[in-house]
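assembly run, all chains below
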Amino acid sequence: MKIEELLERARNWDKLAIAKLITMAEEGVEPQLDVRRRSHVIGITGPPGSGKSTLIYTMARKIPQDKRVAILTIDPSSPFTGGSFMGNRIRMQELTSKPNIYIRSMATRGIRGGLNYATVAAINILEYAGADYIFLETVGAGQSDTDVKYVADTILVLVPPLSGDEIQALKSGLMEIGDIYVVSKSDNPASESTYRDLMAMVDMVREIKGETWRPTVLKVSGLYGYGVDELLKVIDDRFGELMKNGRLDNTLRSRRTLEMRLYAYDLLEKSLNEAKDLESKVINGELSPRDAARRLLNYYDKPRLDHVAVAIKNIDEAARKFRELGLRVSDPIVVEEQGVKVVMVMLGNTKIELLEPLGPETTVAKFIEKRVRVFTT
Amino acid sequence: MPKPKVIIAKLGLDGHDRGAKVIARALAEAGFEVVYTGIRQTPSQVIETAIQEDAKLIGISILSGSHMELIGELMRIMRERGVSIPVLVGGIIPPEDRDALLKMGVAGVYGPGTPLREIIDIVKKLTGVS
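ok done. output:
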């Protein structure tokens, strides 16, 4: 099936077409999409086991069926085999047959382990297909998860109960990107103290980030559905705000630059894999590791030919002939101290320097006397 | 380049998921992107999952004895939806049902004791991975 036909069908929420387009994006095809903002992209992040999949399931189930909901769920790839065991769907399978819901598992692939360029492309495809909500579930580990802020309009950070020290650990990354902080699994009685810890942490981070940063903090149980209606209301109200103040287009721009950055990482990884000769030079000590890295990225200029000097008897005649060939030729310059008249002929990335001796006693005249037998003008 | 996506699913009222998880894990180790659906899936859920994931193969594990009905239903829905994805069946399948399943269009039936290497090889072959 042709890409134009797939795009046409994807517009009608044809899940088969959407799935094929996402696969193509994963395989490196770059569909040219005219994306107009219409989807609320919601990033869901938080440590492994914090209840991300379950919360997405509960939210998606409560969203009215006339709204199109897309769920992208990211699982880690093995850096050694490239394979991935993707189990996030287990918690959401009940949604699979609902006509308004599309779920896709994506592996992190690549060196960085967070989002990859295909994730960004998938978001574009789903927005193009007319999704009202796009939930993006991250891997839930490490700093690379903060990339989600460049693609999502709203970021939910999940914090499970009994993670007092975890909140401290979150501070460096996730505590700074959240729009809504959710104490998940709040059917657990310990969630009350986690909620208080989280409020205290938000106050602390606000001292650094400034008074305008006022994230919502909520207690939710994905399993029993407590607090989910309230959460959805906060999400929808926020989308209304973002539409009004025009901030949705900011995300569209940062999505484009993120895709560039992530694709560059991918290209870098490919060239690293191919740079076996540099690798062996590093191993045998011929190059330092950093020197080799700079070479890989072409930090050093390759050797370049600046010009070739040609001694000649009649420079004006030669210049005329080069001009006739359509080349750019400089005006003649007389260099008394060298005893020559000089004309430069430009050849794109290099030059020919024509030299005519000013008198019979000059170096160039003697050179011509001794050597030139073939080229005469 | 990661290998194609495959679905591993448990069909019907059957909670014995150890075998399915072992197969899923082995295929992931062999470089495949493996979506595991979990237990108690209906045939239509499995087909919908395969469509949404653009899967290149479906692996079904059944130990409940309802394989004839469930696989029949699975193959019927697949035809109805106009897709054609190879299906492998594993689990407890009596030898006398094997041919009937193959006749339904199943690409292979593998019981307990099949070496993982053999499973990986057949999945590679069916998904066009050399």
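Chain B has one domain: 3-127.

Chain B touches chain A through 29 residues (CB under 8 Å).

not gonna interpret more than that til we talk
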